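Researcher: Please predict.
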Amino acid sequence: MSHTAHIRSHRKPRRSASTIAMRAGVASGVLGTLAVAAAAGTANAAEPVTQTLELPVLTGDLAAQVAQSAQATQQAAANYQLHAERDAAAAAAAKEAKKDLAHAKAEATKKAEAARKAAAERATRAAERTTLSTTASSNNVTSASTSTSTSTATGSAAAVLAFVKAQVGDAYVSGGTGPNSWDCSGLVQTAFKQVGIDLPRVSQDQSTAGTQVSLDNLQPGDILYWGSAGSAYHVAVYVGDGMFVGAQNPSTGVAEKPLSYDPPTGAVRVL
């Protein structure tokens, strides 16, 4: 026996071919399993990655479409509101214009009617004056007035005359009853109120308020009228000396005139 036989050899024992083959197979199996697992893991990981890459693109497009749709809706709503406001403003303007037109028409009609009445009154007075001038000439009104020219007013008549003469120069206004503007019957009525006599308001009634007197027997304070008794269209107060005071028309106002200026139709005496 060798003196070194008891010493363990440091050399690795040789592996048998079968052992090596088995280990190679195991290694191959392990590697194959790892490869399959890796491939499966790669496949499983690839699908979420693909979805993650595509979803933002789809979500971005959808958001843009939603934003555009919302913007279009807001614009349509704004346009609708604008049209509604314009329509409301146009309707209000049309209503106001219609109201103004109706008012203007009413005013124009009122003025036209007033002008027509004034023209008719002037025409009537002109016709009456023409007729009365002829009548006055035939009845010698002038000489009649001369016969009363020396009469002197006293008492209540003097107060009436003083009042009407004090208003000479005031304006003529239809319906006026003083103190600075008058119509013919308003002046006569107020003059006689100074002496406690209440006369009717209008010319027609004043022409029958007292005793009818002849034009050739006039006295200061008598009421002169133009037109027929009961339907007279003008009155004034006789102040003596062939003169009268009356609220004539808008052109002359309250004035003192001779009987020949506008010969009256008749007269009444209330004093």
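Model: The chain is about 55% helix and 10% strand.
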